[in-house]
Amino acid sequence: MRIGFSSVCLSGMNFEELVNWASDNGFKALELEAYEGSDHCNVDDGLSDEEAERMNRIAEENDVIISNLQYAPNMLHPDDEKRKHNHDHLKKVIDACDKLDNCEAITTFIGRDPSRGIQENLEFMEEEYGHLVDYAKKKDVKLAIENCPMGFYFPDRFETGNIAYSPSIWERIFDVYGPTVGLAFDPSHLLWQGIDIRRSLREFMDRVYIVHGKDCMIDDENLARDGILNSEWVDALFVGKTGPGHRNIEWKSPVDQWWRYTIPGLGDIDFKGIFQEIEMQGYDFVVIIEHEDPVWYGNERLNKQGLKIGLKNLSQLLPQTGYGEIEKE
């Protein structure tokens, strides 16, 4: 098993700089963001064979695998033109994954039309998502749906959404689609929803293709005062984004939130228990640190420090020969 990180928090680096830094600091895997205009995996005009070859060579020389790509806009966007753009770009990301050694999956979303309820969105998904699943299946690429609710929608600023946030909905999605569709399992989203993390892993381990190492902490004082329905957390979580994905997040002070994401090991999630569970279930691919901790986020130096803290905390839980790699007999 390898520990890596999602590259979007280091969007100021180019691919080679990113891989070199990852290798020099003990990381063994990368989830490369592949949004429009990406400096890590640019597929705007399609990833050329030459560029894929170069990326594979650099990764191999540094003993870092490109385990998966990330592209997670709203695949059920209510605007036909924007939805088509997202679908077309995802297909380019799938093509890129097919060309990259060791790349097994795309971390993405199902999406959500905010004008529809869950059942209506599931029906809309059956109309709109199937051709993407078929395309990925032909390329032998998995669609790993991150279980983030993304339960807010601000036109022209933050037009995302995702219905795949709970086990009961995963079950309904998997009833429609075969094993091409699975999970980028992120425990942080389950904690604040009150969903049992290890039980969810046991039930859906055969559809877990990527594991995200992201922690979450509950502020009991804020929760006792504001309750779970307090909408202030939306603005406290992030007030704006200046680029696709999570590039250049502007964070507000986290003190107003009753929950917030943290570096793994700094929150309330039992990662020792998670590692025990995935080991028992036979998962041996990657754990990807998705860095969204506002305390350790804000510039490249701070973001790197947060990643290194996460690696140190997670690597202590793995019986390994080097950071992030387990030696099995």
Structure description:
This protein is α/β, with parallel strands linked by helices and 329 residues long. The chain has one domain (2-215, 265-326): TIM Barrel (Alpha-Beta Barrel). The chain has twelve helices and 14 strands. It has helices at residues 15-24, 49-61, 80-99, 118-128, 130-138, 167-176, 187-191, 197-204, 220-226, 232-237, 271-280, 300-315, and strands at residues 2-6, 29-33, 65-70, 105-108, 142-146, 181-185, 208-212, 215-218, 240-241, 249-250, 259-262, 286-289, 320-322, 325-326. The chain has an eight-stranded parallel barrel, surrounded by four helices. Helix 3 (80-99) links the parallel strand 3 (65-70) and strand 4 (105-108). The radius of gyration is 19 Å and the shape is globular. The model is unreliable at 321-329 (pLDDT under 50).
Quick structural gist:
This is Xylose isomerase-like TIM barrel domain-containing protein. The chain is α/β, with parallel strands linked by helices. It is 38% helix and 17% strand.
List the helices and strands and how they pair.
Elements: E1 2-6, H1 15-24, E2 29-33, H2 49-61, E3 65-70, H3 80-99, E4 105-108, H4 118-128, H5 130-138, E5 142-146, H6 167-176, E6 181-185, H7 187-191, H8 197-204, E7 208-212, E8 215-218, H9 220-226, H10 232-237, E9 240-241, E10 249-250, E11 259-262, H11 271-280, E12 286-289, H12 300-315, E13 320-322, E14 325-326
Parallel strand pairs: 1-2, 1-12, 2-3, 3-4, 4-5, 5-6, 6-7, 7-12
Antiparallel strand pairs: 8-11, 9-10, 13-14
Helix pairs in contact: 8-11
